[in-house]
Amino acid sequence: MRNEFFFQIEINDEQISLANQLVDYSIAHHPIKDIFSNDPNGKERQREFRFTGTLGEIVFADVYGLPRPSKSFGAIDGQDFGQDFTLKIDGQLKSFDVKSMSRKNNHFRTNYVLNLPAYQMRRMSVVTDYYFCISIHKTDAVYVASFLGLVSKDEIEAGTIGILYKSGTTRIKDDGGSFVFQRDTYEIDFKDISSPFLNDAIKKVKGFQIKKLLSPFLKK
Predict the structure, then answer these.
(1) Strand ordering across the sheet containing 163-165
(2) 13-29 and 42-63 are packed helices; what angle lies between their axes, rounded to 10 degrees?
(3) Least crowded by CB within 10 Å, which of 7, 50, 157, 219?
(4) Which residues of the chain have pLDDT under 50?
(5) Looking at residue 32, what is its pLDDT?
(6) How far apart are the first and last CA of the chain?
């Protein structure tokens, strides 16, 4: 198992306020194709989707001392070609695409998955080296970000980690329900996500805790 640990921190009010500002501006000034057009709650879901992604980028930037994003996901004149940030690994500068998701809690099991649409990797313009997984959930009035770690794009494409499921494939969820992939999608088990970078400064962030993935047979 690659994921020996992950960590969580609290998200502060200023970070949330900035995310809301960027999302509101993005929706007002940078329209994109509405993937929720057939959903009666589509506008609300679209905003939630952008908010989660933008908030994840903000906390990632703050935790690792990088410039914050100036635009929200979906800005048609701000495409990043799969490069949200750059960080050095073994002395080499690598491109990171932050993938943030919203969940009800952060009791994660080893068989939980990160879904990555295959088309994002296949675009000729993509410069991503690593995907970084962040999960965000709200407990009472506090938002918490769980930094699960990183996965290599090259390893995914080589089949070293993850499984590619074709469009139309039916998958069974952890709660017994099912869904159908609308496009080719890679599933990467949380156990195959390498643990996140950690330093002394991060350990001082409010709400910092070291966490571990749970067995597939345990609920929490």
Answers:
(1) 113-117, 185-189, 163-165
(2) 130
(3) 219
(4) 36, 77-78
(5) 58
(6) 19
Between the alpha carbon of residue 54 and those of residues 47, 68, 79, 195, the distances in Å are 10, 10, 14, 22
The token pair that represents 177 in the structure block: 């329900």
Nearest one of 205, 194, 200 to 60, comparing CA atoms: 205
3-state secondary structure at position 117: strand
CA distance 105 to 220: 10
Burial class (CB within 10 angstroms; exposed 0-12, middle 13-18, buried 19+) of 9 = buried
Separation of alpha carbons 190 and 203, rounded Å: 22
- At 44 the pLDDT is 73
| pLDDT value at residue 78 | 44
**Residue 192: DSSP 8-state:** G
Please, what is the Cα angle at 155 between 152 and 51, to 5 degrees?
35
Distance of CA 85 to the CA centre of its chain: 13
99 burial class (0-12, 13-18, 19+ CB within 10 angstroms)? buried
Record the pTM: 0.89
Alpha-carbon separation of residue 62 from 15, 21, 91, 154 (angstroms): 9, 17, 21, 27
For residue 176, the model assigns a pLDDT of 75
Q: How far, in Å, are 17, 131, 170, 192 from residue 3 at the CA level?
A: 32, 14, 27, 6
Question: Which tens digits make up the pLDDT trace of 121-147?
Answer: 887 678 899 999 999 999 888 999 999
Tokens of 41: 């709650």
